[in-house]
Design brief:
The complex is a heterodimer. By secondary structure, chain A is α/β, with parallel strands linked by helices. Helix content of chain A is 40%, strand content 15%. Chain B starts with 18 loop residues before the first helix and ends in a 16-residue tail after the last helix. Residues 1-17 of chain B have low confidence and may be disordered. The chains are: A alpha/beta, B mainly alpha. Chain A binds chain B through residues 200, 279-280, 282-287, 289-290, 297, 304-306, 308-309, 317, 320-321, 323-327, 329, 331-339, 341, 380, 383, and chain B through 1-2, 4, 6-15, 17-18, 21-22, 25-26, 28-33, 36, 40-45.
Chain lengths: 452, 50
């Protein structure tokens, strides 16, 4: 499947039509799904109805914009009227919302055709998304909690999908599956009609094959901000880029060398790169885990005592853990959150961005619960996966992971993360596109018949 | 009701398999907070003051 913009042009030239696009996506989904397991509910009838409607409208000259007739997927945490929102859980298996989330309403008004509701770690509460697999290598994890959305895009079944990100849940699976993931600025996208994990950190955003695909989806779901925020899209040349000194102390060698090589390329393109001490990333991860735990426990108290056996083991363990956090732990977490937020505000205030690795490791094998760094030390898998990402849920700044190269040995993708000023999401997308051009990175879907 | 112990916020034993990691993380959080200015307020401290 071509990019969304190319497909939109082909639709208007009459070279394809929305029904053919849905047929292609559903055919690919059926081919991959026995092993990939990206989706919880496949919306075949609903998708064909929407595609036929889009075909008629386009034939009659009613053009709803770039997404009109384009197949997409939506994480099964987000309400679609009349379709179960299970949140990947037993507890909500029969939860059928009467109305769609405003984001879904906006997407369907723009003519997007939703073909499936994608798998999520139960209640978005983890970094693995069982039983979904990574389309680049089915022995590997896709990441989570939006693992189904990253997998369905990474496999080339659709070009874009919606995910949610509370501690890295869009950016981490996108990075592991070799696609682009945007956590928008806090408040730019609605969370109404979305099962909460932690209200003060939850964000809905796009996962897409490329930066332009990501931009198309974002444009439809985001609230508009003052034009001043997006005037004069910045250039990498002359841009001030800060890198977080303490974050890169523990990485895998392959990721480190690709990351440093990328920074060299950005420097050659005219960026001014400066390493800055921004504090202990694990303290910020702890702050995020305390806030997520406290807010999630508050939401889950409605089932926590009476339906304990209906939770997956790891989710129940996290809720049990959250019940041990003290009031002072929560206040400490909120104090560190505010202090770090002001630090990042100052850093990116004057047309600068922060760059970090998108991940510190390559995609782990599904059964590994530890990751091995280049000094042979090991670290807990989930904490390692969220370490570069969760701090920016605390601050609310927009953050995007973009693949920039592939590890020469394994062929697995390596991504970097760009963090920008609040409400400058459009500028960040523009810079992310420039980064991919500078790194000469182009996305292509994996060959199904050659996947390990 | 189940036979599971009832939760009491802040007073329950931490699950054994995660206690080391979490205890270490909470220590790191406390250490980072000790390094802040002593009057650094939490997120949300301004709420309702405008």
């Amino acid at each position: 499947m071509e990019s969304i913009l190319d497909t939109a042009r082909a639709l208007r030239r009459g070279e394809t039509d929305p029904v053919a696009l849905v047929e292609y996506s559903l055919c690919e989904l059926r081919r991959w799904e026995p092993q990939l397991r990206s989706s919880i509910t496949i919306l075949e009838d609903r998708a064909f109805e929407a595609a036929e409607r889009a075909r008629t409208e386009l034939e009659q000259g009613l053009d709803r914009g770039t997404l009109h007739g384009i197949p997409i997927a939506v994480k099964d945490l987000i309400d679609i009227a009349g379709v179960p929102t299970t949140a990947g859980s037993k507890i909500l298996h029969d939860n059928i919302p009467p109305s769609s989330a405003p984001l879904v309403v906006d997407l369907e008004k723009a003519g997007a055709v939703i073909i499936s509701k994608t798998n999520t770690h139960e209640f978005a509460f983890g970094a693995l998304t069982p039983p979904t697999r990574n389309p680049l290598d089915l022995r590997l994890m896709p990441g989570g909690s939006s693992g189904g959305s990253a997998a369905i895009v990474g496999a080339g079944i659709v070009r874009a999908a919606l995910g949610t990100d509370t501690g890295g849940s869009i950016r981490e699976p996108a990075a592991l599956c070799g696609v682009v993931g945007l956590k928008p600025s806090a408040g730019r996208t609605s969370t109404t009609g979305v099962v909460p994990l932690a209200w003060s950190l939850d964000t809905v955003g796009p996962i897409a094959a490329t930066v332009p695909d990501c931009s198309v989806l974002f444009e439809v779901i985001a609230s508009h901000v003052s034009p001043a925020s997006t005037r004069n899209p910045p250039s990498i040349s002359g841009l001030s880029i800060s890198v977080w000194a303490e974050l890169t102390q523990r990485m895998q060698a392959a990721v480190r060398s690709a990351y440093l090589e990328t920074l060299d390329k950005l420097s050659d393109a005219g960026a001014n790169i400066e390493e800055r001490p921004l504090g202990d990333p694990d303290a910020l991860v702890a702050a995020a885990l305390v806030i997520i735990g406290a807010e999630a426990l508050s939401y889950h108290l409605q089932w926590y005592e009476t339906r304990r056996t209906d939770y997956q083991t790891d989710v129940l363990a996290y809720l049990d853990l959250a019940s041990t956090f003290t009031a002072a732990d929560l206040v400490d977490a909120q104090r560190l959150r505010r202090y770090f937020t002001k630090q990042i505000d100052l850093l990116v205030q004057k047309a600068g961005i922060l760059v970090t690795p998108g991940q510190l490791v390559l995609a782990p094998v599904v059964t590994d619960d530890q990751v091995v760094f280049d000094d042979s030390r090991t670290g807990p898998r989930d904490l390692t996966l969220i370490r570069p990402l969760a701090p920016f849920n605390l601050t609310g700044h927009p953050a995007i992971t973009v693949p920039v190269t592939k590890d020469s040995l394994s062929g697995l993708p390596v991504s970097i993360q760009l963090v920008g000023a609040r409400n400058s999401d459009e500028n960040l997308l523009s810079l992310a596109g420039q980064v991919q051009t500078i790194c000469q990175h182009e996305w292509s879907p994996p060959d199904f018949t050659a996947i390990p | 009701m189940t036979n599971q112990p009832q939760p009491t916020l802040g007073l329950r034993e931490r699950p054994a398999d995660r206690i080391m990691t979490v205890a270490t993380l909470i220590d790191r959080l406390r250490e980072a907070v000790r390094a802040l200015p002593p009057d650094a307020p939490p997120q949300g401290a301004d709420c309702g003051k405008d």
